[in-house]
Amino acid sequence: MRLEKFISLFILIAIGVGSTTATTTLNYKDALSKSLVFFEAQRSGKLPHIPNLSWRASSGLNHGSQENVDLTGGYYDAGDNVKFGLPMAFTTTMLAWSVIEFGKKMGHDLHNARDAVKWGSDYLLKASCHLPNALYVQVGNPNDDHKCWMRAEDVKTPPPVYKVTPSNPGSDVAGETAAALAAASIVFRGIDPQYSKKLVNAAVKAFTFADKYRGNYSDSLSSAVCPFYCSYSGFQDELLWAAAWLHKATKNPTYLNYAKSLGCNADSDTFSWDNKYPGARVLLTKEYLLEKNQRASEFRDHAERFMCSVLPGSPSMSVKYTLGGLLYKMTGSNLQYVTTSTFLMLVYSKYLLVSKQTFKCGDMSVDHHLLRQVAKKQVDYILGVNPKGMSYMVGYSSNFPRRIHHRDSSIPSTNILSGALSCDAGFQYLHSSGPNPNVLTGAVVGGPDENDNFADDRENYAQSEPATYINAPLVGTLAYMAASVQH
Q1: Which residues are named in the active-site annotation (predicted)?
Q2: What angle do CA 61, 65, 68 make, to 5 degrees?
C-alpha cells in the first residue's frame, strides 16, 4: 500500500469514517422503500388511496383559485402547509437524478420513485404554463402559516399565491424549475415520450425566462420567501444547473456553451436547495469522464475540489465531522448537507469506476472505493450506526424520533378527530410531550448537533423537522447501497 493512501485511510479510521460496527446489519432496501413512502405523505392535492397512510387525506384543492389558475398538487416542503417552489423544484430534480443514475438498482421501488418525480413535475408544469408572462413559485404565506398549527386538510381558505414575472424576476427559482423539468423529461423519455417532450419544452421556456429576466426571486418576493428560502447564493448557480440539465436532456451543444460562458470561479463545499454549483459540476464532468467530451473538461477540477472539501483527511477539507463520524456543516437541518454530499460522492464514485480514473486531494489519493466508503459511513450513521444508536429516519428500526416537527403527523387524523381544528387549536399538539400519533414513515429529520446529541423534541425544529430535500438525494444513495449489498 502506498504511504499516502495508508495515511489517508488511517485518518479516516481515526475519526470514525473508515469503518462501521461489524455486527451492524442495515437493510438499505427497506430504508429505500420507506424513504419513498415519505413523499406520498408530503403530497398536496387530490390523494389516491395510499396503504398505511390513512391518516392523510386530500388537501389544497383550491390552490390557485383566487387567480384562476390550477396550482393543485405538488409537495409541502417540510412540517408546514406551504408549497415553496424553490425547494420543491430542487426536490424534483434530485428525485429525477436519483432515478437516472440509480433507477436500475431500485427494483420494485422504481415505480414509486417515478411516481414521486411525476407528482413534482406535474405540479411544475402547471406552475410554468403561463410562461413567459408568469411562473408561479409559491402557494401560501409562511408568516401566516407559522402562526397556526393545523392539519393541511383543515386549511379551507385559499392561500395566497406568488409568482415571478418579467418585471419581478426570479432567475433562481425559474432556473431550478427548468432543471427539474429537464431532469424529469429524461426519467420518462423511454416510458412516456409524449410526456417527456412536454416536460423538456416547458424546461426550455423556464430557462429562457430565467436567463432573459435576471434577478433573485427573494428580491422580488421579499418577506414571502425570506428568511425561509432566500436565494443566498444568487441565481448564477441555478442558471448553470439548468443549462447542465438541458444539455443532458437535449444534447444541444448550445447549453454546454452557455454553461462554459458562465465561468467557474466560485467553489463551494455545500450542495443544497440554494447552492447548485457542486451538483452542476459533477453532472457536467460526466460529459468529460464518460462521454469523452473534451469541452467539458474544465468542470472536473471544480467537481473534485468539492470532493476534497468534504472528504475527511483531505488537506483542503472545509467541513467538520463529529466525533461519531457525521459530516457537520450547519446547525439547522444538517442532514440535508449530508444526504446531498453523500449522493454526489456516490455519483462521482460511479463515474470514476467506469472511466478508471482517480484524483488527488493534495498528497491524498482518492478512488471510487474511498468515495463509496465515506458515503456508506454517512448513510449508516443516518440509519442508526451512531453514538445514540438512533435511526434518524422515522419508522426505520425500533429507535427513531417520535416527536417530529410536523403538523399532520403530530395531530390526530381526521379519522379520529373528525372536526376541523382552528388555527390556534392545534398548538396543544405542538407543545405536547407525547409521541406523534401518526408515524411519518421514511422521513429523515434535521438530525443531531455537532456533539452527536439529538433532542427528540417537536419544538426543536432545527433537529426534528423533516424535509423533502433531505430525503430526495437519499433515494438514489439508498438504491446504490441496497444493490451493493445484494451483490
Answers
A1: 405, 456, 465
A2: 135
Q: What pLDDT digit, counting tens, does each position of 448-462 carry?
A: 999 999 999 999 999
- Is pTM beyond 0.85? Reply is yes
Position 372 pLDDT exceeds 90: yes
253-283 pLDDT tens trace: 999 999 999 976 688 999 999 999 999 999 9
Distance separating alpha carbons of residues 273 and 340, to the nearest angstrom: 9
456 is catalytic: yes
Q: How far apart are the first and last CA of the chain?
A: 26
Residue 27 has pLDDT above 80, yes or no: yes
Taking residues 189-205, what's their average pLDDT? Answer: 98
Strand partners of residue 33: none
Find where cell 426570479 sits: 170
Instruction: Write the pLDDT tens digit of every residue in 292-349.
Output: 888 889 999 999 999 999 999 999 999 999 999 999 999 889 999 999 999 999 999 9
3-class DSSP state of 249: helix
pLDDT in tens, 173-182: 999 999 999 9
pLDDT higher than threshold 60 for residue 11: no
294 CB burial (10 A radius; 0-12, 13-18, 19+)? exposed
Among 302, 368, 405, 406, which one carries the catalytic annotation? 405
Catalytic residue among 115, 450, 456, 457: 456
Residue 217's CB: how many other CB atoms inside 10 A? 33
3-state secondary structure 286-353: HHHHCCCCHHHCHHHHHHHHHHHHHCCCCCCCCCEECCCCCEECCCCCCHHHHHHHHHHHHHHHHHHH
Q: Which CATH architecture has domain 3-486?
A: Alpha/alpha barrel (1.50)
Q: 3-state DSSP call for residue 453? A: coil
SS3 of 396, please?
coil
Does the annotation count 153 as an active-site position? no
d(CA 141, CA 159): 7
Gap between the Cα atoms of 249 and 333, Å rounded: 31
Quick one: residue 313, left, alpha or beta (phi over 0 = left, psi -120 to 50 = alpha)? left
- Which set of grid coordinates corresponds to residue 314? 483531505
The crossing angle, in degrees rounded to 10, of helices 171-187 and 109-128 is 140
350: alpha, beta or left, given left = phi > 0 and alpha = psi -120 to 50? alpha
Determine whether 237 is an active site residue. no
Listed by start position, the domains of the chain span 3-486
pLDDT confidence band for 1 (50 / 70 / 90): very low
